[in-house]
Amino acid sequence: MAALSLCLTVITVSLLLTLRADGAGQNPDHVLQGTGVKHEARRPGEDSTIAPEDAARFLSCYCSGHCPDDATNNTCQTNGQCFAIIEEDEQGEAILTSGCMKYEGSHFQCKDSPKAQTRRTIECCNTDFCNRDLQPTLPPVAPAGNVLLTTAQRFRCFFRYKWQAERQRYHKDLEQEVFIPAGESLKDLIHQSQSSGSGSGLPLLVQRTIAKQIQMVRQIGKGRYGEVWLGRWRGEKVAVKVFFTREEASWFRETEIYQTVLMRHENILGFIAADIKGTGAFTQLFLITDYHENGSLYDYLKLTTLDTQALLRLAYSAACGLCHLHTEIYGTQGKPAIAHRDLKSKNILIKKNGTCCIADLGLAVKFNSDTNEVDIPLSTRVGTRRYMAPEVLDESLNKNHFQAYIMADMYSYGLVIWEMARRCITGGIVEDYQLPYYEMVPSDPSYEDMLEVVCVKGLRPTVSNRWNSDECLRAMLKLMSECWAHNPASRLTILRVKKTLAKMVESQDIKI
Question: Is 499 annotated as a binding residue?
């Protein structure tokens, strides 16, 4: 609670400053570079001296979210000051950006004003890349004379301070490496760390050593968070997820989740290492995991048809992974219950043996049963609209109730089962691969598109008549229908799904 008290003290300081009444004073972005607004440069006459605002740029600053067109490697230059801004978006999420501020008006704007934007704080400094270390905090939302924070604001403030403390731990310049003997494989190292009793992954310095020694081979994927590369460590193939700088919160959250005690499971993507590499000019955020050459379930289903055994192997292994996430393991070396929040076919990978492992945990939510608190990530990312449960789309989900996130995952799991079942051949017939709701919404549906289809019309993905004539597909149809029920309380839990699929797997004598 000390961090929370500090936060409350800092952000309740009154901001009763007076700015100039001109356009720059009313619009604080007037002097920020990289805001997308072009301003005419001042042109001194032949006999005039150069004004300070027209002086050559001499200061290098880190930029994220406010990078001008001529910025390179997240670096901009200015004749004014470096700045960092924290502001609240339309969803109430805190967004931290930074960049270069022009000399003109900077002495006013670096003080910021409540008139500039009601939920925004700016801080400035004047040495190279100094704004990387600035951590402005939001002012409170309260009626006049009332400085008490709402519960939501206190939670957001607490989590932000928690994130910043952990972030600084990773940003420390730890140059030393540990010696890893020749002949040691990644499997050996991970086994040793598991048997040591920590159960939370490799030691930080071992991770950093591995990260420094990885050779990047080629890019194999790209998403809204960054890129995925095939890499090699001492000849072993690994996957390297390189996050965009603006996705640092997602990188931290995914790293934190993967290193949770007792997190390792054969149906969760195997975590190897995480590292931040900073050169002073820009930062690279790495997450290193097992490499699976079959790619995602989305890629696999587009190219591959399934028989009954392959379908059950995929569905059951995905259920096992999700069940491990959702389940709390009690004890001093226990594991919290975790909800994924972005489950979809693109976030499930296919292993060589035809089973699934669940990946992309950057939006995951943890539940602390000791304090009954839901640990929500600070990332500004949201889930994938096509896979959002009705209660997420219509904003009726209770964000303080962890079971609500669990049930939202179950809806998404039902859609994934639908994708798998379409590709199962029965009687020589199989459907082409399609995404859920492909015939009802555009290729990149909006919230409004999905809300209309899922909540207003109450529609669900269509199924072929052939499913009812096959025992396995008929059972899968019953499962998915109970997973994507409109009422979260009516949906199956993943444990129930796992038990049902286990019986089907056993009856078919399928080896997993």
Answer: no
